[in-house]
Amino acid sequence: MIPRRPAAVVFDMDGLLFDTERLYLQAMIESVAAHGHEMTDAFYKSMLGQPGWAMRERILAHYGAAFPLDGVRAMWRTRFGALCEDHLALKPGVPELLDLLQRLDIPCAIATSSRRYRVMEHLRRHALADRFRHVVAQEDYALGKPHPAPYLTAAHHLGAETSYCLALEDSHNGVRAAAAAGMMTIMVPDLLTATEEIRALCLGVARDLIEVASALARFPDASGRGRTLDDGTARVDFESGPVSQ
Questions:
Q1: What is the DSSP string of 132-185?
Q2: Which of 26, 61, 84, 230 is the most buried if burial means most Cβ atoms within 10 Å?
Q3: In angstroms, rounded to a whole number, what is the distance separating the alpha carbons of residues 167 and 174?
C-alpha cells in the first residue's frame, strides 16, 4: 500500500507513459546492424533509464572507439521517429491515472532521460501536454539516472518534499534515482523485471498504472470524500517490497 497521500506524483516517460522502449530497441538493433555490428537485447536493456551521453560512453566502451556511433545515432533517431508515427501507444492506465490525480488535486511532473523536444512530441501526439505541471528532461540536469538529480529537480519545481512525492518508474536505474531522492517509489515493469535489489528500494511492483490508480483511489479528494475507479476498485495490495523511505 501507499503509506501516505502523495503531495505530488513524478512519472518517468519511456516505458511507463508511452510504449516506446520496444520501438527504441527495434530502431537501435536495425541501425547497428545496418553499420555491420550486432546489438543484443541484453546490452540495450542494460542502458535503460540512462541519458544519451551515458549511453554513448557505454556503447563506445563496448564496441570500441572505431564504432560508427554518429552514423548509428542518426539512423536510430530517424528510424525511431518513423516507428512513432505509426506505433506510438500509451501504456495501460495512463488516462485513468491522470484523471484520478486531477480529481484528487495532486500535481504531477515528468522526470525523463529523453530530450525535451521528444517529450513534447509524444505528449502533443496524445493531447497530454497540459496534464503535467512540469517536464524535467535531459537538458535540465547535469547528472542523469541513477543519480537522483532528475527527481530532485522535479520535486523542486513541484514545491514538494521528496518524502511526500510518489515516483513511478519502469527501469532499474530510474528506481535507483527515485529512491536515492527519497521518494516513495513504485516500479511498473516494462522491458525489465524487478530484481531483489530493486524490490528493496520500492513500495512495491505494480502490474500497470491501473493498479497504481487503484491504490491511490483510497485517498480523499479536495472535498474529503474517498473515490473509487469506475470498476469500483478502491485499493490494491502490490507485490510489495520493504518500504525504505
A1: -SEEE-GGG-SS-TTSSHHHHHHHHHHT--GGGEEEEESSHHHHHHHHHTT-EE
A2: 84
A3: 9
According to DSSP H, which parts of the chain are helical?
Answer: 21-34, 41-45, 52-63, 69-87, 94-104, 116-125, 149-158, 172-180, 196-201, 209-216
Give me 42's grid cell: 541484453
Nearest 5°: phi and psi at 239?
Answer: -75, 90
Smallest Cα–Cα separation from 98: which of 128, 77, 72? 128
Indicate the domain borders of the chain: 8-19+89-240, 21-87
Report cis status (omega within 30 of 0) of the bond before 242.
Answer: no
What's the whole-model pTM score?
Answer: 0.86
Going by DSSP bridges, is the β-strand pair 165-169/134-136 parallel, antiparallel, or unpaired? unpaired
Condensed to tens digits (0 to 9), the pLDDT of residues 147-188 reads: 999 999 999 999 999 999 999 999 999 999 999 999 999 999
Asked if residue 229 has pLDDT above 80, the reply is no
Q: What is the pLDDT confidence band of residue 143, given thresholds at 50, 70 and 90?
A: very high
Beta bridge partners of 111: 136
pLDDT digits (tens, 9 = 90+) for 30-65: 999 999 999 999 999 888 877 778 889 999 999 999
Give domain 8-19+89-240's CATH number out of 3.50.7.10, 3.40.50.1480, 3.30.300.30, 3.40.50.1000. 3.40.50.1000
Cβ pair 206, 241 in contact under 8 A: no
Q: How far apart are CA 113 and CA 43, in angstroms?
A: 18
